[in-house]
Amino acid sequence: MRIYVFVASLLGLAACDKPAPPELPGGTLIENVNGYSWTGDEVRTFVALNVGEDGAVVATYSSGETLPEVANRYDGQGATLLPGLIDAHGHVLALGQARNRVDLVGTQSLDDALKRIVDYAGAQPQAPWILGRGWNQVLWPDQAFPSAADLDRLAIERPVWLRRIDGHAAWANSVAMAAAGISASTPDPHGGVIARDENGEPTGLFVDTAMELVERVIPDPTRAQIRADLQTAFAELLSLGLTSVHDAGISLDEAAVYSELAQQGELPLRIYAMLSESAFPEFGDPVIDDGSGHLAIRSVKAYLDGALGSRGAALKADYSDDPGNRGLLFKNIEQFDQLVSNAVGRGFQVNVHAIGDAANHVALEVFDRHKDGRHLRHRIEHAQIIDVEELERFAETSVIASMQPTHATSDKNMAEDRVGPQRIAGGYAWRKLLDRGAHIAAGSDFPVEPANPMFGLHAAVSRQDRDNQPPGGWYPQEALTPAEALRVFTLDAAFAAHQEQQLGSLEPGKRADFILVDRDILKGPADQIWQTKVLETWVNGRRAYQRPAP
Q: Where are the beta strands (DSSP E) in 147-235?
């Protein structure tokens, strides 16, 4: 017995004398990856990414460098790793609603659209209004705008209200028009048009501000409905590799729901929200976040004109395919100046929708007046048709061009018809703007366009649609390089939100927002970029999405 105690004592002493194994630092090493990130003025490549426990980047490692020992190691299995992509112009609630309402995107005929409407109405017998979005008559054989008569023959006894794909026109049935009190005597509002037949009767088509005549009688969604629609959108956006979205125009109710989600830790991606013009006067101080959190509300979304497809974009001269029509300018210089003055005085960035060259001129003129507000990094959203002589003014006035590459490839079949061969030189002019020193922030304008950022990267590089048409690209001299395209969807988009110190690249101290994808979009074939699949999406060093196994 004594021998046993003695031996046991010796073993205990030996155990005490043996040094404990070193405690490995927390965090995660993502290794075996083909990594890219802008750093300064160049793209850095790396094979491993070290993420700290706090969700910040510790370091990246090039091939041949010694990798650190950390608590968690994750094999990227050779996938390409990119900074989390940022959509600088989308509509999050509208995306969720599009998934939960009548989806008319891609309908190839009026009959195709009507069938979807009937199917939805049958499946939603309790819905007080039949609401939806996404029709585009340009894709239909006769390209004719739809009418209330088309909807009335479906014998749906509830109001039907369906927004066009671009959100700048809507289609109503007679029940909806009656609910809104619309008749032949209803005047067109400023900045809008009620389409009428030869007898002056409304046809059921409403353009731009005329849509408000009907929408003011549609019941507002409850906050619970807003929350559910946002969550639908969040899941889709994360699956597409988006870790941050600039939400272009939110209501006070949306702002309240976003704030609640952020406070409860239920915002799975980062939202940089722009207040709608109607919400702005009643909102309080800016909610400023440098990107380390999940919610910022520090800008106001304004409108100067409509869309090119519906000939509502404000032009300096007549539409080439519609003499006598110059579109709809919603505000003159003095009216817009007043809005910008109010916003600058309250510390809000102004992000203004301007598509036609007349609207872009008004925006540039007013922003040039407010040199005291340049630190707010004002933006022109879309900036589609710009007078060539005014392209340099973007850099001169420090105005950011917030543009959507897929608009060019969607609009290529009608844009030159609208503005002619001379004005198109200032259309969708990404290269000209970059070469003149302007900042570009890229987005999609979803659900007007698909939310998939790979479609935008492809369009930016190829100037082609997803059928790779036209051969060689549409005005290919305006294309970006793959590296430039990556930058406008990451670091430059972060700059447009005052968040470049935290987001947009994978540098030490920044937030570890990144994605793993199935191909090398910088070195692979440009015509295949749109086919890229997102394998995983990580936000703040935590995996937020993983593609299901086949």
A: 160-164, 169-172, 192-196, 202-208
